[in-house]
Specification:
The protein is α/β, with parallel strands linked by helices and 208 residues long. It is 31% helix and 15% strand. The relative contact order is 0.18.
Length: 208
Amino acid sequence: MKKLVLLFASLLAFGANAEGEVTKEVFISPGVVSININHQGESVQLQRNQDRDNEISDFYLKTTRGKIQAMHPFAPHLVETIGELEMIDYVKQHSAGDESILVIDTRTPNWLVFTGAIPTAINIPYTRFKNKEKALEIMEDQLGVQVDDVFDFSYAKTLVMYCNGVWCGQTPAAVKALLKYGYPAAKIKYYRGGMNAWKSLGLTTVNL
């Protein structure tokens, strides 16, 4: 029994790879420690912090911020809510050259100073989506929408959007504005965990 306890403690301390071998590496998913990402022309290694004593940043320690967002706050619109592994998959696709995907950090710029951003993301503050004139300009210039008397969403990009996390209303506000303008719900993905969850897992961040 004592040996089993020691073995379990060892696995907790060092982790195990896909084959069950004890390792000091911190995994993203079974067998995956890191992924090479192209962020704004530079190579970035996307991984979890490999220091086993690493802790979440002080910025996200407070538990009193904001209001808890629903898991599916856009009903009846079928906007998909995604988690970290799905988010990483979209980052990989965009990094590999899939221009039909756009990762958007919807926070106002002051938040980025303290937390960084998810690799491949661009910053379009939610306030710009709430302003119809600015939103239409963004939709035409960056989101692949033909803005005319009748909007054409045939080439609209898949938007993978996030803000601070489950207590943050910035992405929900941006998504609701886009839906009001007719943006297809099927082409919007909501990463509800946001930067709070991303940082709590020790995942790589970049400066925008």
